[in-house]
Structure formats: structure tokens, C-alpha cells
Write a structure and sequence with these properties.
This protein is 44% helix and 8% strand. The chain has helices at residues 12-19, 32-38, 57-76, 82-107, 118-122, 129-146, 168-182, 185-196, 235-240, 258-261, 314-317, 327-341, 344-357, 369-383, 390-397, 401-412, 430-435; strands spanning 23-25, 110-111, 126-127, 221-225, 254-256, 277-285, 290-297, 322-326. With 445 residues, the chain is mainly α. The chain is globular, with a radius of gyration of 22 Å. The strands form four sheets. The protein has a two-stranded antiparallel ribbon. A two-stranded antiparallel ribbon has the order 2-3. Strands 4-8 form a two-stranded antiparallel ribbon. Strand 6 and strand 7 form a beta hairpin.
């Protein structure tokens, strides 16, 4: 299975981070796709050279097709035991909602495919985002009922310490996010609370050390993916950690933007080098002797070859798994929902739990709704950077994208490219438009 949208070079985290104000792209990188995301200058002109912006579209729909196939065949199966069938159906519905979440947030209105029938899929039109969200919610409510409360092993018959299969709590966590994005704040608070209050499995967040949060099966992890690369831990560490040899335009070519680095409060332990950020000082040239320093995400810390990791020791010798859903986000979802609901004491409780873990004092700013929302968005920026495009999606859903990117785009392009609001949506690949004649392109492309 092609996992490029999920991890490593070309992943959603990387491309959306380049689009926002999180990453810098190293000089010498000439790939049209990376440059397009970084300079907010994507292009999908029919017949044009080097189209960019649609790299995630087809892979995400391929995942959805597999989910649809699983749902159809599981529903038709009479050979599986009821509990196994229920768990697998819950996983398929959860995954379908997960992939649609990113499609609507990256591309806007998208075709809503719920079948494997090519005659139906070929003729689909773009469904309004609201309709796609309705389907996500329906799938996640089903998944929440179907999925086990415990983490299950590959047999689905026994529990395990491995947090690599979706559970009821993963469905609740994603539901909390979806409800937040759709403005159903009471339900967002309710779903986030289900996860936060499950202290037998998770948290509390302030008790989880920063540098243990991204370890495999940590009490921060709601759902992780076990990497499958032999001799390595995560692809994220391989991609993000700049080695002592310095920037490599073929492998390690992104690093943290100064806009992000300069935005942390003094004393924030997340920004202390060696915690969630680290630096490399490397020799750029010998004659003349020139050194440079780059800062990079250091949430995942193990990037070097480990010969003890092989096909039989993935679960024993790996120390880091790839984080998909984690507890920190749930506190911030609940804080934002509580702000909208006017529960200021609850907001401060959640916000201060995140700040306490970061080594910061309790929030002491104004407590009117705009001020609290600004404080939460700032914490989201510092808590969730480099993860799953959260910053890019936050800028858009909070309607701050034009104000921020009108400055940042000029910085990234050295004044050559001005931000235009339509660029907050990625273009649909022209190859997909050719295949599905009823689908139209996003404005501006």
C-alpha cells in the first residue's frame, strides 16, 4: 500500500507544513511540487508542465476505495464471528471518515464515494463539505459503537499494549475534532471528555513528560501506526532530523521557520533544544569556511539505522511509533469548545494542563472570548506543530489564513509571489478531472 500521504517525504504533514508558516525549504530543492506548496504557487493547468497541488487527492481516494470494499464485503460475509466482523466494520468506517476529513479540509467540496461501483463513482459530482461532514459523523458514530474499548492484537480476540488499532476512544477523538470543525461545540466537548476522562488509558497530560509523549504505546497515544521499515523507527524522524552532514536536497531539506521559532514564550520547554525542537550546526563550505544552523522538529528522535529492528522485532525493538491521534489535541479541542460555550473555568483548566506540561505558568491573560480563542490557537501552534497539517487547517478554519499568509507568502518567495485567498484550497489533479467529467476544478486553478 502506498503510504506516501501518511508518512515521510510527500506526506500530508510535510506538504501542509510547507504551505503554512511552519517550514522552510532548503535552497537547491527544485522539485516543482515542493516549491509549489512552499511558495503557495500550486498549478494544475491542463497539459501544463510539472503540475502540483494534487499529490494527496488520488492516494486518499484510493484509501477510501479500500474502505468501501471492506465495508461491502464485511457486510456480505457470513463466515466471520460477530465480534470480529463488528470490529473490522468499525475500523473501516473510522478510516473512511479519517480520510474524508483531510480531503474536505485540503480540497473543499469533494465527491462523496460510498461504493466500489465504477459506474457510480465516475459520474459523481462534488458534494458540499457539510454533506461530507454528515457522512463522517455517521461513520464515526457507528465506529464508536462498533470498536472495542480495548486495544486488540492482530487476531482481534485478545487485548494488547500496542496502540496501533483504532478503538472506541480513537473514534471519540476524531469525532471531537469533527464536531469542533463543524461548530457543534457541546458534542465536541462531550467527545473530548470521553477520552480525557479515561484515565485508565490516558494522561493526565501534565503527567506525561514531553520526551516520552511520542514513544510507542505512551499514555499520550490514542492511535499510532507501527512503522514497517526494516532497521529504522519512524519515517518522520528520518525526514525531519537534519544530520551532522547538514541539509541534503534529496532527503533532509525542510527545517523550522523562524516565524514559528520566534513565537514561543520564554521558558516554553517544547522549544528547548533537545525536547521537541533541536538544531544542527553544519559546514556549508570549506573555502571560505561557512557554517549554518538549522532547527528542526525533534518530537521523533530516532533517525539512524538500527540493525536490531527486523521483520520479527518490530514490536519489541522499535521505540517510537508514528503518532496519529494524541491526548494533547483533545485538551485543546475541549478548551476551544468550552470557550464557545462560555465555560471559562473549564477553558482555563484545560489550557493550563497543556501549559503546565510545557513548563509554563498558568494563563494570565484576558478571559473574553476572542482573547481565549487567540490563546488556544497559539497553544495549538506550539503543541501540534509538524503534525498532520494542523497549523494549515487551523489558519483556514479560524479565518486567519489571509492575514497570516499574505505576509508569509511574500517572505517565502522573497517578494516574488503574493498570497491569493483561493490558494487555501489545493487544486484537484487534471487527471482526475479527465477521469470524472462531472467534477469541476477549484477556483483559481
Amino acid at each position: 500500500m502506498d503510504l506516501s500521504p501518511i508518512q515521510g517525504l510527500g506526506s500530508l504533514s510535510m506538504l501542509a507544513g510547507l504551505s503554512a508558516d511552519e517550514y522552510n525549504l532548503a535552497a537547491g530543492v527544485n522539485a516543482a511540487s515542493y516549491l509549489g506548496y512552499y511558495k503557495n504557487a500550486l498549478s494544475q493547468i491542463a497539459g501544463g508542465a510539472n503540475p502540483s497541488g494534487g499529490e494527496l487527492y488520488a492516494p486518499l481516494y484510493n484509501f477510501i476505495f479500500k474502505c468501501n470494499a471492506a465495508i461491502e464485503r464485511l457486510n456480505a460475509s457470513n463466515s466471520l464471528t460477530p465480534l470480529v466482523k463488528q470490529q473490522l466494520l468499525g475500523e473501516a468506517k473510522f478510516m473512511r471518515a479519517f480520510f474524508y476529513f483531510y480531503l474536505v479540509n485540503l480540497f473543499g467540496d469533494v465527491p462523496l464515494s460510498l461504493t466500489t461501483d465504477p459506474q457510480i463513482n465516475t459520474l459523481l459530482t462534488r458534494s458540499p463539505k457539510a454533506n461530507v461532514y454528515e457522512q463522517m459523523i455517521a461513520d464515526l458514530l457507528d465506529a464508536e459503537e462498533m470498536l472495542s474499548e480495548n486495544y486488540l492484537n492482530a487476531t482481534l480476540l485478545s487485548t494488547t499494549n500496542e496502540r496501533t488499532r483504532p478503538t472506541k476512544w480513537a473514534a471519540a477523538a476524531l469525532l471531537a475534532r469533527v464536531y469542533l470543525y463543524t461548530g457543534d461545540y457541546s458534542k465536541a466537548e462531550e467527545q473530548a471528555s470521553l477520552v480525557i476522562n479515561n484515565t485508565s488509558l490516558y494522561g493526565p497530560i501534565s503527567s506525561i513528560a514531553l520526551n516520552s509523549a511520542f514513544l510507542k504505546n505512551s499514555r499520550e497515544a490514542i492511535w499510532q501506526i507501527q512503522p514497517t521499515s526494516i532497521n529504522f523507527n519512524t519515517q518522520e524522524a528520518k525526514m525531519l532530523i537534519v544530520p551532522a552532514s547538514g541539509i541534503n536536497v534529496n532527503a533532509n531539506f525542510i527545517f523550522l521557520d523562524k516565524n514559528l521559532l520566534n513565537s514561543f514564550e520564554p521558558g516554553d520547554q517544547r522549544a528547548v533544544f533537545g525536547n521537541w525542537i533541536d538544531t544542527t550546526i553544519y559546514k556549508v563550505s570549506t573555502t571560505p569556511l561557512v557554517w549554518d544552523t538549522v532547527a528542526y522538529p525533534f518530537k521523533y528522535k530516532l533517525s539512524t539505522l538500527d540493525p536490531t529492528i527486523n521483520t520479527s522485532t518490530l514490536t519489541t525493538n522499535m521505540k517510537e511509533y508514528f503518532m496519529v491521534l494524541r491526548l494533547g489535541e483533545q485538551y485543546l479541542i475541549r478548551a476551544e469548545a468550552r470557550t464557545k460555550l462560555g465555560n471559562n473555568s473549564g477553558v482555563l483548566t484545560d489550557l493550563n494542563e497543556i501549559r503546565k506540561r510545557a513548563g509554563l505558568p498558568n494563563y494570565s491573560g484576558a478571559t473574553d472570548q476572542p482573547s481565549l480563542l487567540t490563546a488556544i490557537l497559539k497553544e495549538r501552534r506550539h503543541e501540534l506543530f509538524s503534525e498532520w497539517g494542523n497549523r494549515w487547517l487551523d489558519l483556514k478554519r479560524t479565518e486567519n489564513v489571509d492575514a497570516v499568509m499574505s505576509v508569509v507568502t511574500l517572505q517565502k518567495s522573497k517578494g516574488a509571489t503574493a498570497w491569493q485567498s483561493y490558494q487555501q484550497l489545493y487544486p484537484i489533479p487534471v487527471t482526475e478531472l479527465d477521469w470524472a467529467p462531472n467534477i469541476t476544478q477549484n477556483d483559481g486553478y
